[in-house]
Amino acid sequence: MTHGPARDLAAQLTARFEAAGALPVDCAILQPAETLLDLYGEDIRARAYVTQDPARGERMLRPDFTVPVVERHMREGAEPARYTYSGEVFRRQEDHPERSPEYIQAGYEVFDGSDPARADAEVFALFSEVLSDYPLKPATGDIGILTAAVRSLRISDARKAALLRHIWRPRRFRALLDRFAGRTPPPPTRTALLKAADPMDAAGPLIGLRSEAEIRARIDALRADAAEPRLAAEEVQLIDTLLRVSETCPFALERLRDLSIDLSALGPAVETFARRCEALAARGIDVGTLPFEASYGRTSMEYYDGFVFGFSAPTRPDLPLVATGGRYDALTERLGGGASIPAVGGVIRPDLLVALGGRS
Q1: Fewer Cβ atoms within 10 Å of its own Cβ: the N or the C terminal residue of the chain?
Q2: pLDDT in tens, 294-323
């Protein structure tokens, strides 16, 4: 596939990022599949291209740059650090066959723990600047506010972990929330299984990779979950109210501060949002008109755990997001073997900018 205009534009973007202090880096197109499967589970196979190398094992065509850049930084980098890159990424498009599975991506990543709110503002303001010639609409959110709300719920750690695991799958998250609140009954097959004195008595021969001990442990976990009290209706209502917050930043901040009266655990995350607004304003962003959605980023940004943002093209609703980004502190810890550093970054698709054709 020819990417001439997109590649030229990517070079211009990375030059802008270099001027902002970023070090240019490159990453192999073939990445070890093990790391990405560990991060995303088997779901990644539906979105990426996987192949088998006789000597190196399972490999994956690079689905993005962020993971290998984080791995490189956690292995070799000094702090603070800024990186930029560009090149092809590969994503299967089974739900959108009209979209190309191969495209150019240009990005900017910041590893700096001195002032995370200021780093968030730096990345967003830089993207706003380099994209200012295009008819794009920004959107922002903060996954950290929702995760703080989930962690404050009066339920078991196991149920909190299940909700946190599915924050990026809104339908599954809602199904779990409704089940924990008693709004929907458990599956009939599960109810029948747990009624049996010993469900293994009626089991046939073991098939698959799970041992009998693992199966019994899972049954015990299901019984513990079934015995747990329901999640209080008022807590579900608070989560629902939080997910409906969709305002410009100042009004969203006001609503979130009101919510934090009943959900005190929201306080630190909401104040981080407030500091980010101040940092954005200091960089010339009109936060009075900047949209904020508490649920933004939950379907496409699975490794982000704080600030998230995107730029879309209202005149071309057929196009995917032109640029996306956010904070991914937890990812650095997972890939750093316990070591971590606050990190934030984003990517731009030059091919979509080419399709838009320039200034609005």
Answers
A1: N
A2: 999 887 656 789 999 999 999 999 899 999
Residue 65 annotated in ligand binding: yes
- Does residue 237 have a known ligand-binding role? no
Q: Is 298 annotated as a binding residue?
A: yes
Backbone angles phi, psi at 217, to 5 degrees: -65, -40
Query: Measured between alpha carbons, how far is 65 from 84 in angstroms, rounded to an integer?
Result: 10
pLDDT digits (tens, 9 = 90+) for 165-197: 888 889 999 999 999 998 887 777 666 666 666
Percent of the chain with pLDDT over 70: 84
Task: Tell me if the pTM is above 0.85.
Answer: yes
Domain locations in the chain? 156-231
CB proximity list for 169: less than 8 A, separation 6 or greater: 298, 299
Instruction: Provide the token pair at 53.
Output: 């190398």
Residue position matching structure tokens 């750093």 = 336
Take residue 68 and report the two structure tokens written for it: 């290998």
Altogether, the residues listed in the chain come to a count of 360
Q: Is 248 annotated as a binding residue?
A: no
Strands 323-327 and 291-293 come out as unpaired
103 is in an annotated binding site: no
**Rounded to whole angstroms, how far apart are CA atoms 86 and 107?**
6
* 75: CB partners within 8 A, 6+ apart: none
| Exposed / middle / buried, residue 74 (Cβ in 10 Å: 0-12, 13-18, 19+) | buried
Distance CA 133, CA 136 (A): 9
